[in-house]
Write a structure and sequence with these properties.
Helix content of chain B: 10-25%
Shape of chain B: elongated
Oligomer: heterodimer
Largest interface: A-B, 65 and 62 residues
Radius of gyration of chain A: 27 Å
Largest sheet of chain B: 7 strands, antiparallel
CATH topology of the largest domain in chain A: Maltoporin, Chain A
CATH architecture of the largest domain in chain A: Beta Barrel
């Protein structure tokens, strides 16, 4: 054991101080994989796989399997040809033995061409991370980003009514969770618990959640983890294709239409492009027994991307716009604590409500816009240099139920609260080619941000400047079972606090600190992956924690910031085991232990604040050392071919070490068990039609601090969900049809992490039907790739 | 073949044009500057008028708004076993040079407002005598009767958008004002 530790130490030293950085070329790499038809999942027999401009190639066998041996490392272009002149090419970076499966997708319904799509090698995080791929994303489609993520173990949501959901990772949320939208750090109003992420979930082709401190690569603040939202890559083959999605939900009579069109030009200027948009409209939702008045939503999003990929360089521009208008349940508006107590005593909203698409007050209008430009350059044998510039603009307008007194009626359309954020960021990174089996990248990021509060003096205006630099190295030598990673980051942040409402603060705050990570993956081939990660991250207090001062309406509390708060520091240890036994059993278990020094939270005060609206309980932002530990798991077990047992669970224990009491508003224990039956008929499981029945159990939260809440946590509940999906062809048009019934038994329940649990039950049964229609248009056959 | 390629080019032309057009919609911080002119209720004024026309005025005020200094309530001093007419006024005195009378706005939106009284001896009864446009009580004018000498509390609240059809309308709506006075009958 000691010997191993010493070895580990030596490796770490080698990572940091390796003096000889000379690349070695061993021509002993094996590339293998399988070629299948994307639609039928049938193996494509005897396809020819060759490496362009090299005299190397092979034929796949009758089962689509191929092997290429004794390859030299480097950049190479793989060319796949098939009988009937089906051909395509793909560039890969080969550095070690790898497996490369080809999906031959028939893009055209009119003419015959087959394109090749491959999966690029990705360095897996040493933290526990889970990815929602397109297929899983489909089942959460139409729900908000937060709700879609809550399918993952260890991820829950913090809700404000039924229309606002924020992701919570292992008990932490808001500023402690970083969201990267297409590689750009989302800069919205994430500080508020009723401020949901401003992202169109239909834009995402893949969402990855990295649980645990992940600051080194993604920036300070990522104490709890990172959510990576990635759109699909731009087309690599010439032609035009697209996708239309139609979806309806019974509850709220919500309708969604989403479309995407992409293409790539052929010829000397092979530009790729994509246009995507989503339209959503929903009306009042229904809880068992009554309508939730004013819970409608409208959303209008679009994005475009244009890119050009050349041999040595690539560039891409991306623009997205998110706009939503959403109602806040009108039964939740209260003026003071007496109103809140009345609402809690009533046990159900006063008004029965009725169905309407009309949105009244209270209302939120949110606009978010992102423009990004990225360029990358192959720096010879050394690596890849990448530059990314981005601009984001965010506007949040909140309309209270309570109209202003004053000159009526002209001011009815003026929001009570209006925040705006303009963010500019530049990021430069350099990813070097593996040197002595060391993979790594170095980067620097600069960000400038202007925050203005046009209405409602909740937080002051401020400018935020930040800069950071990181270096990460990964040691990986196939087939050696151990992988090691180590990284370090420095961040500097300066806040220029401006004028707040009536008072001028004129204060400057500076923070700077280090983040670090050490991780390891140990693989027992075809059985078990063990991952260990220790990360430390920090987070500067945000402006609301420092300077907020006022009544938080809806929460009936008076919240006061503390300008003397210091940064939080997290020490996160996680151990994760991934079991993979044949194709029958897949399981991941993650244990985490997260120490957060100077954890910032709202502490109830003994004296209420008296106002002309009555007395409000007072809460002050304060700091204390905290500890969060827990266990997440996910297990899939094939009982008989086609029938799968699924189990997920998240347990969390969050403790305030200084006050010696539990932390409030932490997710209760949650379990999900499911049975999934796939109608295989020779198809691969992920593509076969299926039916799934699942049951979610949430226990009552008993880990709560004394006297910090107006009502005890709601009792636990059990929900059922039924889901199914199938794919077929209508003529030559492929179609995917899916349905999900949320809350199958129309159960009345309340959720502890929903701030509106005082006022109303959660929505009842919701039947969703979705239709996906991929289409392709085709241009003439490309020029031959094999010369 | 050629025509398809031309179509593709057209597609891109449209694509880029559309993108460019949409891009021109790029939003900027409109820098309206802070707007904190929203009127507040800072003062509740109770005027008790007895049968002889003698008036006494008592204020509950929090002129610096929420936070800062706590609100100040004057003690209500009344005579025993007397009938008064109680009239309410709601004022914005946050700017002493520009006092706004919000009572007028409440009258204008009378159906959306209700003044509620929570009283105990020595006040023996308060009955609203005014009505909104729908013939429902409003509470800006009330009859108030005192009992024997003693002291107690009176809480006055202004409800916004209450459900006046409810059996207990004062438990509905949003509370705009909730002011508690000490009452001394001597």
């Amino acid at each position: 054991m000691l010997k191993r530790l010493l070895l580990l130490g030596q490796w770490l030293l080698a990572i940091w101080f390796s003096p000889s950085l000379l690349a070695q070329n061993h021509c002993d790499i094996t590339l293998k994989g399988k070629v299948v038809d994307a639609h039928t999942r049938e193996p494509v027999a005897f396809a020819s796989i060759a490496i362009q401009n090299k005299n190397i190639g092979t034929l796949a066998d009758e089962n689509g399997n191929y092997v290429l041996k004794n390859l030299c490392p480097g950049n190479l272009i793989l060319v796949c040809t098939h009988v009937g002149c089906h051909h395509a090419e793909h560039e890969i970076l080969l550095v070690e033995n790898m497996s490369w499966d080809f999906e031959l997708e028939e893009e055209s319904v009119l003419l015959e061409e087959v394109v090749v799509q491959g999966k690029a090698p990705v360095l897996e995080a040493t933290q526990s991370s889970t990815t929602l791929e397109a297929a899983q994303l489909q089942s959460g489609r139409g729900k908000s980003l937060g709700d879609a993520l809550s399918q993952l173990p260890g991820v829950t949501t913090l809700n404000t009514g039924a229309t606002i959901a924020k992701p919570v990772i292992q008990g932490l949320h808001s500023n402690r969770v970083l969201i990267l939208n297409n590689g750009v750090r989302q800069e919205g109003q994430q500080w508020g618990s009723e401020h949901a992420p401003e992202i169109d979930p239909f834009l995402a082709d893949k969402i990855t959640v990295i649980k645990g401190a992940s600051s080194v690569r993604y920036g300070a603040d990522a104490i709890a983890g990172v959510v990576l939202v990635e759109p699909r890559p731009l087309r690599e083959q010439t032609g035009i294709s697209g996708e239309a999605n139609l979806q309806g939900f019974s509850n709220g009579r919500t309708g969604i239409a989403s479309g995407m069109l992409e293409g790539k030009l052929k010829g000397r200027l092979p530009i790729s492009g994509r246009l995507q948009g989503t339209l959503k409209r929903g009306g009042n939702l229904q809880a068992p027994g009554y309508y939730l008045d004013n819970t409608g939503v409208e959303e209008l999003n679009f994005s475009w991307a244009v890119g050009l990929q050349q041999e040595k360089w690539a560039t891409e521009a991306f623009y997205s716009r998110f706009f939503t208008r959403l109602g806040i349940f009108s039964g939740s508006h209260i003026g003071n604590l007496t109103d809140l107590r009345n609402a809690i005593e009533r046990e159900r909203p006063l008004a029965e409500g009725s169905f309407t698409y009309e949105l009244g007050r209270p209302l939120q209008r949110i606009y978010h816009e992102l423009f990004k430009w990225k360029a990358s350059l192959e720096t010879g044998q050394a690596g890849t240099l990448q530059l990314q510039l981005s601009r984001q603009f965010n506007r949040r307008q909140e309309y209270d139920a309570h109209r202003q007194y004053g000159s009526l009626p002209d001011n009815l359309d003026i929001p009570q609260i209006e925040f705006e954020i303009t963010t500019h960021a530049a990021e430069l990174s350099w990813e070097h080619r593996p040197i002595h089996h060391l993979w790594g990248s170095i980067g620097a990021i600069f960000q400038q941000q202007a925050n203005t509060t046009d209405r409602g003096a909740l937080i002051p205006n401020y400018n935020n400047y930040s800069a950071g630099a990181y270096w990460i190295e990964r040691w990986k030598k196939y087939p050696f079972p151990l992988e090691l990673e180590s990284g370090l980051r420095y961040d500097y942040q300066k806040m220029d606090i401006g004028r707040q409402g009536q008072d001028s603060i004129g204060q400057q705050l500076e923070f700077n600190n280090l983040s670090g990570t050490i991780g390891a993956i140990y693989r027992f081939p075809k059985l078990l992956d063990l991952r260990f990660n220790f990360g430390t991250a920090w987070r500067a207090p945000n402006v609301s924690e420092l300077f907020s001062n006022g009544v938080h309406h809806g929460a009936a509390s008076y919240e006061a910031g503390d300008p003397n708060l210091g940064p939080e520091r997290a020490f996160n240890t996680s151990l994760s085991a991934g079991l993979n036994h044949g194709n029958r059993l897949q399981a991941t278990v993650t244990l985490y232990y997260n120490i957060i020094d100077n954890f910032i939270f709202l502490e109830p005060q003994s004296e209420p604040v008296l106002t002309i609206r009555g007395a409000f309980p007072a809460f002050h932002y304060t700091q204390a050392d905290a500890r969060l530990m827990g266990l997440d798991w996910q297990l899939d077990y094939e009982l008989i071919p086609g029938l799968q047992l699924e189990s997920k669970g998240s347990l969390l224990d969050a403790w305030n070490r200084e006050r010696e009491e539990y932390l409030s508003l932490m997710p209760p224990f949650r379990f999900e068990q499911g049975l999934k039956y796939s109608f295989l008929h020779g198809k691969v499981e992920s593509e076969a039609p299926f039916l799934r029945l699942s049951m979610t159990n949430v226990l009552e939260q008993t880990r709560i601090p004394p006297e910090a809440d107006y009502a005890p946590p709601p009792p636990g509940y059990t929900l059922f969900q039924l889901e199914g999906r199938t794919q077929f062809r209508l003529g030559r048009q492929p179609l995917e049809v899916g349905f999900t019934v949320f809350n199958l038994l129309n159960t009345s329940y309340r959720e502890y992490l929903n701030r509106f649990r005082y006022f109303t039950d959660e929505p009842g049964r919701n039947v969703s039907l979705r239709l996906r229609l991929p289409f392709g248009l085709k241009i003439g056959r490309g020029e031959g790739v094999l010369e | 073949m050629q025509s398809l390629n031309v179509n593709l080019l057209r597609f891109f032309f449209l694509f880029l044009t559309a993108g460019a057009l949409l891009w021109t919609g790029c939003e900027k911080d409109d820098d309206e500057g802070p707007d904190n002119e929203e009127e507040l209720i800072t003062t509740v004024r109770l005027t008790f008028t007895d049968g002889a026309g003698n008036s006494s005025v008592f204020n509950f005020s929090d002129t610096d708004g929420i936070g800062g200094n706590p609100p100040v309530a004057e003690d209500i001093i009344l005579a025993p076993n007397t009938a008064y007419v109680l009239s309410m006024e709601f004022l914005d005195e946050s700017n002493p040079n520009d006092v706004a009378d919000i009572t007028e706005e409440i009258k204008a939106e009378a159906t959306e407002h209700l003044v509620c009284f929570d009283f105990a001896p020595p006040i023996s009864a308060i009955t609203r005598i005014d009505q909104d446009g729908d013939g429902k009580p409003l509470g800006l004018e009330s009859d108030c009767t005192t009992g024997d000498a003693g002291s107690g509390a009176l809480t006055v609240s202004l409800k916004h958008q209450p459900d006046k059809a409810n059996a207990n309308p004062c438990s509905t709506g949003e509370t705009d004002v909730e002011a508690t006075f000490e009452v001394i009958v001597q």
